[in-house]
Amino acid sequence: MDRARLMAMVETLGATFAGRGMRRHVEELRVYWxxxxxxxxxxxRRVDVGWSESLVVEWFRVLRLPPHQWDYxxxxxxxxxxxxxxPDGHAVEVKTGLTFPEGRKAVCTVCGYAWLEFDxxxxxxxxxxxxxxx
Length: 134
Description:
Helix 1 (3-19) packs antiparallel against helix 2 and helix 1 (3-19) crosses helix 3 (53-62). A hairpin with a 2-residue loop joins strand 2 and strand 3 (103-108). It contains three helices and four strands. The chain has helices at residues 3-19, 23-37, 53-62, and strands at 74-75, 94-100, 103-108, 114-118. The protein folds into two domains: 3-62, no CATH class; 74-126, no CATH class. 31% of the residues lie in helices and 15% in strands.
C-alpha cells in the first residue's frame, strides 16, 4: 500500500479510537504515524510500539471502517463456529482474538474462521464509526 493511503487510514483509525476512548491505542498509533511521516518505517515493517500496516488494516476490519466494513460477519454473542460441527458431547472452542468497546472478534480454534460479536445492548447497525467522545 502506498504511504499516503496508509497514513490516511492511520489518521482515520486514530480518530475512531479517540472517539471510543481507546487512549492507549491512540498514543501508540501516534508514534506509528510519526514514523511513517518521517520515512522511518519501511513498507510492511513494524514499529516497536507494535503497529504495522497489517494491524491498521485489521483494526479497520474489526471496527467496520470503509472499505473493510464487511470483511467479518456479525454473529450473536457466544456463537459457536458456523463452519465446524461440534463433535458429540463436545463444543468447538472459540477464542477472543481482539476486544473493542462494543464487543469482540471471535476466532474458531479449529478452522480459524473469524467473526464479530457485539455486546447484547449494541446492534451492528447502531455502531457509528463517526461518533465523538463525550
